[in-house]
Amino acid sequence: MSAVTQARPAWGRAPLLIGIIVLAWLLAILAELTGEVQWVHHHQLRVDGLALWASLALFLVAWQVHIAAMMLPSTLPMVGLFQRASAGQRHPALARSGFLGGYLAVWTAFGLAALVAMALLEGLSMHWHWLHHRPEWLAGGVLLLAGAFQFSSLKERCLDKCRAPRAFLLNHYRQGLAGGFALGARHGLFCLGCCWALMLVMFVVGIANLAWMAPLAALMLVEKVARHGRRIVRPTGALLMVLGLLVMLDPAWLPSLVPSATPMHAH
């Protein structure tokens, strides 16, 4: 563990992960440019023309691309530290795979839970005609929730853990595949605690919707990695709440970002 106490690792210590992040962004951009956004915007429990298992498989693939693009950049400092700490293990590659697997398992579970929740809301809206004809209230409500969460103590506590990867690693480091998985899952839970509300926005506006994906990814990266990232947390929360209110009052405020008819369907 002595390697953990050394200087802050360079992000270049995880070239494979950086390559995955770049590839994920390229896929999202290519989907926009070619008009094939339905493959990466997918966030329905069941897609028309596909069996349920195929719909879930499509979602899981799209969601992994989404997580790679938006969440992995902010975990690179932790990855760099873990790579150095695990270098002396008997099977360092297994430990590192376990870490990444634990991290992705947490975010995959969240994605599936959010997917089911959105499906339930969609089913409710079919029986509650007032909500069915006012989809902007769902979009605006999620923006309000995301904005309000920026002011919460839970957000601040989880940010403290994410912004101190060295201390986190020293307290929770374990060797082996299981130890790596447990560490990755624990780190993923604190990362989820920071960002779940912001990521929930993507289920309303469309997974891999670049107009929202890019600024939200940049926001989460700055919050967790930049020296003065904490200073933007609450101003961003206020901005999101204002946007939420504007959308609820009149969705024409953000016509290109919030679908005006069926926000819970893939584009």
UniProtKB/TrEMBL annotation:
InterPro entries: PpoB2-like. The keyword Electron transport does not apply. The chain crosses the membrane at residues 12-31, 51-72, 93-117, 189-212, 232-254. The keyword Metal-binding does not apply. It comes from the Bacteria. Keywords: Membrane, Transmembrane, Transmembrane helix. This is DUF2182 domain-containing protein. It comes from Billgrantia campisalis.
